[in-house]
Design brief:
single chain, about 350 residues, alpha+beta, Aminopeptidase, Alpha-Beta Plaits, 2 domains, eight-stranded mixed beta sheet, four-stranded antiparallel beta sheet, 10 helices, 19 strands, elongated, binds zinc ion
């Protein structure tokens, strides 16, 4: 028996299985956070800090660069897929195998086996990623202890099928309101129809040509789309109000202010009486031109892919730390009953990261 609940001398696939067999559905991460903290405190080359159920461990070697390896320790609810099961084809099945206990296992292995990395390392293990954004442990650490997350470059070991996914797009949701004047539909000339007034908005959306900017060699694809429309008072009333809900997914070369400005410009002459920002989260630059990132790309090989959806790399970006996703799981199987990971991908990611951090 290991002296702590987690045995960091296990290889990464076996450690992944041990982590899957240590359930940590969002909101119940404390025992696993305790075990991770305890195991890391056994390692003399790391300084360990804790905030809630978030554990941060750092080397202090005075290297010229610092990189952050981060991962969430929670999973979606178990769906009859715990304990884990390893089959003859080298596939490990179970809740969190892909998203993202295999990534956490790689982090822990690097923490345990690379005591003198060529770059200072910060390991972040955080809770509540799979639930509402305000609960996200990485966000809580960023707010309470931003100094713990300082670095030149960050890798989130989220499932990316062992490919590098750089940056992420921003997402802005706005309500475009049009105004009219109510009247009985039998005497419609007495009023003005707010739904008809929304016509130019829809025409503008239909003819809009989204950008495909290339940033650090990655091609992003933007989108500007109506995702909802609301209007109508009664079937015999000319409506005096209509709202078109528009979602703008934008590449990370645009700031949040620029994205809002762009949307206002696009609809400037479309008869909109009011534009209300409903929800807005900025994107994240891939930062692949940074020396630490370039060395990382060289060590892991392959071609980086852009990330279209919003991810926690954006939280690092907000702190001025460029970040990418790179992990052994396959996102297509995340959150599924048949969630699984290929054992050789886990080993591959571990080897590539070790090479980057020791060569
Ligand atoms: Zn995840």
């Amino acid at each position: 028996m290991p002296e702590t609940a987690l045995d960091l001398t296990l290889d990464a696939p076996a450690l992944t299985a041990a982590l899957v067999d240590f359930p940590s559905v969002s909101g119940t991460e404390k025992p696993l956070a305790d075990a991770i903290e305890e195991a890391l405190r056994e390692l003399p080359h790391l300084t360990v800090d804790r905030h809630g159920n978030n554990v941060v461990a750092r080397t202090r070697l005075g290297r010229s660069e610092r990189v952050v390896l981060a991962g969430h320790i929670d999973t979606v609810p178990i769906a009859g897929n715990v304990p884990s099961r390893l089959d003859d084809d080298g596939i490990l099945w179970g809740c969190g195998t892909s998203d993202m206990k295999s990534g956490v296992a790689v982090q822990l292995r690097i923490a345990a086996t690379v005591p003198e990395p060529n770059r200072d390392l910060t390991f972040v293990f955080y809770d509540n990623e799979e639930v509402a954004a305000h609960l996200n442990g990485l966000g809580h650490v960023a707010e309470a202890h931003p100094d713990w997350l300082v670095g030149d470059f960050a890798v989130l070991l989220e499932p990316s099928d062992a490919q590098v996914e750089g940056g992420c797009q921003g997402t802005l949701r706005v309500h475009l309101r049009t105004k009219g004047e109510r009247a009985h539909s039998a005497r419609s000339w007495m009023g003005s129809n707010a739904i008809h007034t929304a016509g130019p908005i829809l025409a503008r959306l239909a003819s809009y040509e989204p950008r495909r900017p290339v940033i650090d060699g990655l091609e992003y694809r933007e989108g500007l789309n109506a995702v909802g429309i609301e209007g109508g008072v009664a079937t015999n009333v000319i409506p005096d109000e209509c709202t078109v809900v528009v979602n703008y997914r934008y590449a990370p070369d645009r700031s949040m202010a620029e994205a809002e400005e762009h949307v206002r410009e696009v609809f400037a002459d479309c008869g909109v009486s009011e534009i209300v920002v409903d929800d807005h989260t900025g994107g994240a630059l891939p930062g692949l031109s940074h020396p630490a990132a370039a060395a990382f790309m060289e060590a892991v090989g392959g071609t980086a892919q852009p990330k279209f959806g919003w991810t926690d790399v954006s939280r690092f970006s907000a702190l001025g730390v460029p970040a990418v996703n790179y992990g052994p799981g396959d996102a297509l199987f995340a959150h599924k009953r048949d969630e699984h990971v290929a054992v050789d991908k886990i080993t591959h990611c571990e080897d590539r990261l070790r090479e980057w951090l020791t060569s």
